[in-house]
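Case 396 in the screening queue. Each case pairs one protein sequence with one candidate compound; here the compound is pyridoxal-5'-phosphate. For every case the pipeline is the same: read the inputs, emit a complex structure as tokens, and attach any notable structural observations.

Predict complex for case 396.
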Amino acid sequence: MSQPNPNGRHPETRVVTAGRAVGETALAPTLYPTTTFSTETVDLGRQMATDPTADRFYTRYGNPTISAFEDAIAELEGAEAARAFGSGMGAITAVVLGLCSSGDHIVTQRQLYAGTQMLFQAVCPRFGIDVTFVDATEPGAFAAAIRPGKTMLVFAETPANPRLDLVDLAELGALKGPITVVDSTFAPPLIQRPLDHGVQLSLHSATKSIGGHNDATLGVVSGSQELLSWLWGFAVLQGANAAPFDAMNGLRGLRTLSVRLERQSASAQQLAAFLEGHEMVDNVRYPGLASHPQHDLACRQMTMFGGLLTFDVIGGLDAGRAFVEATTIARLATSLGGPETLLTHPASTTHVGLTAEEKTASGITDGTVRVSVGLEHVDDLMADFSAALDVAAQVA
Ligand SMILES: *Cc1c(COP(=O)(O)O)cnc(C)c1O
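Case 396 output:
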């Protein structure tokens, strides 16, 4: 599977060792719940208050439990530095509002996580930041929308929520001028590493696959020390820092990331193939399927195809709702990347306020279902989906 990195160790090994300090004999992450630290001298305190790497001054600035998580993520992303946040949205708002000022311009894509889209649509204009939305599956779309001297940020998400469209990371990494950012939540470090392609910042909602157990709300951004130091300066004022307890759970989650992703990717591939052959199902989207319009790109930039897939239940809104309410193993819940298989029905939840045209632009139909494949036995999942599709067929 994945290639050994230059120091000879595979990512599967590094998820187990990353973030452990030299000489540390505790194998589980150590929790420092403390909000503050005593300093020997006034000078030392002042020095730490201005040092992005200091983690024994005040927890909003830094904390050893949070550092351990950040160091682990930086190592796995191939980054110089990382900063953890209290949520994925905390990380995204820090990048957007920490790097852009009034008068600046952002280029992003139409298909985005709903929270990110709201930030670009509703918050950025209030601060005088202009945002252009493009179809990022079209080659050259980002480059064509850049306004030289004005565009501060190009913000991509790949694979994108909910239809799993991909952005070509090499093309994004080759853009000159603006700072390039990828929300790589759907493809954690073992699956894809945006920085290897020249992208400047990689971010994750670690609430999802990285934490992996539905018990930590967490975000993380990785990149150069220079960019991360700048972000740190904003982040200590923004105050969306990670909680030590969540960072501890994030690091605990990382230790099993590779086996979880392998199982979820294998099950998702099998489930996607099963759904593709089912008469009640249309438009199965999974990067690992040959029918995915960007399957070749997925093979180039992803080592596994992940646990997310999307499909349409034939029969519209009623059939879609009947399906997600009829499964008994898969649960109807937002979020992804945990042990439990989760379903969302965008047309009646996240995208309920959209017009028919807007839904089409977001790649959603009334019957669209998003699946986050969990760790259950795939045969049980297929039986669960099959029975629920029979229920949907009765209302279609
Ligand atoms: C969940 C998610 C976010 C937001 O993360 P939170 O931890 O919920 O704030 C951002 N981007 C993507 C792709 C997500 O799935």
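Case 396 observations:
- Residues 87-89, 113, 115-116, 157, 161, 183, 185-186, 205, 207-208, 217, 219 surround pyridoxal-5'-phosphate (CB under 6 Å).
- Residues 257-395 form a domain with the Aspartate Aminotransferase, domain 1 fold (CATH 3.90.1150.10).
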